[in-house]
Structure formats: C-alpha cells, structure tokens
Amino acid sequence: GAVVSQHPSRVICKSGTSVKIECRSLDFQATTMFWYRQFPKKSLMLMATSNEGSKATYEQGVEKDKFLINHASLTLSTLTVTSAHPEDSSFYICSADPGKYNEQFFGPGTRLTVL
Amino acid sequence: SQQGEEDPQALSIQEGENATMNCSYKTSINNLQWYRQNSGRGLVHLILIRSNEREKHSGRLRVTLDTSKKSSSLLITASRAADTASYFCATDARYNTDKLIFGTGTRLQVFP
Questions:
Q1: A74-109 tens-digit pLDDT
Q2: Would you call A10 helix, strand, or coil by DSSP?
Q3: Predicted confidence (pLDDT) at residue B58 exceeds the cutoff of 60
Q4: B42 CB near a chain A CB, below 8 Å?
Q5: Which of residues 36-65 of A touch B (CB under 8 A)?
Q6: For burial by CB atoms within 10 Å, which of A52, A91, B22, B86 has the most?
Q7: pLDDT digits (tens, 9 = 90+) for B15-54
Q8: Which residues, 6+ apart, have CB-to-CB distance to A55 below 8 Å?
Q9: Which chain B residues touch A41 with a CB distance below 8 Å?
C-alpha cells in the first residue's frame, strides 16, 4: 500500500511552454501533498505544500505564478510549470501524507528538461 | 531554513563492510526519518525515529538519535552492492510537523 505515482516520468519541452505534472496517491487519500525540486546530486528542496480544497502554501523564494499548484481531489495534485525556461530544468518529486503515520510517501519523480 | 547537514557527502566501501552516515540538524524536532534514493528515482522511506527514542533497528539498519547534540546516525551493516544509493535524513519541525526538511545527503557506493 501507500503508493504515489507521478506522470509524466520525463518531459522535454521548448522554452516558453507550460508543463503539467500530476501526482496521485493510488491507494490512500491525502489531504496534504508536497512538491519538491531536486538538482543533480543535491538534496530535495520543498517548493510548496498542497492542501486539498485550498490554496497551496509556497516556500520562500518560490514564485506562485511560475509554479501553479492545484489539489482538486484527495488523490490528485498537479504542478504546472508556466512559461518554462532552461533554468527550470530539474527533477520534481511529489509526496503525499495520509495523515496517519507522520510519514510522507514519495512519487518516483519527473525529470523536466527545458530546451 | 532548517536544512540538516550530512557527512560524509560521499562514501565508498566494499561489500560486507559497514557504512555509517551522520546527520545534524538545527531546531527541535518530533521525528527524524531516513530515506534512500536510487539515482534518478523517488525516495524510499527507511526508518523513523521519534525524539524520545535513542536507537532503532530495522533489519541491517541501525539508527541512533542524540537530541542533545541534534544529530543522528544511520548504520548499514554487512553492506551489499544493492545498497548503493543516496541516503537522506529528514526532520520535521516541532511546531510545524507537516513539513520535512531534508539533509544534504550521503552518496554511498558499495563495490562488489
């Protein structure tokens, strides 16, 4: 149990386009999901906390209009990178908190490459 | 932010040897967790240790926690080539338990 999926696993896009990444909890409901960004050989940096039915809470330095988060249901959160630029190229990982075990379950990540 | 520091940043050992990774953090916590990440993949939860616990075991893993020093260690005994991965500690903040703050990670290479 406690499986989190992400789609797509890899995406390559042109500069200026928008990319949507989905995060789904497959066998549990998650009122809270988290979005992280990871640069090569670096740690995970929390970007935002996604709350079902309300606005996401962004970490300092993360542009809300750049990284749009929607948590429309208890099993789905989406991250849209708007007007992507090469510096947005990174590994994006989501996690979901079932709210029971004080543990987050992580998706497999999405590698975004912006040309 | 509360990001923890891990050392060593990289560790190379032979199969059968033990691997020890250390993590330090800055503020009071409720829990500390260790995660593993294979290259280009998501994170796998290994073990959670609560602030009132000093040691915890899970198979070949042994985790210690010293809240007075704000540090934790992860010991992998009898390592295998399949243990090759990056290992991260993550702490929650005592007054904001939803968030996890990750350490800088240790890249472990186990040679057969």
A1: 999 999 999 999 999 999 999 998 876 667 899 999
A2: strand
A3: yes
A4: yes
A5: 36, 41-46, 49, 59
A6: B86
A7: 999 999 999 998 888 889 999 999 888 899 999 999 999 9
A8: none
A9: 107
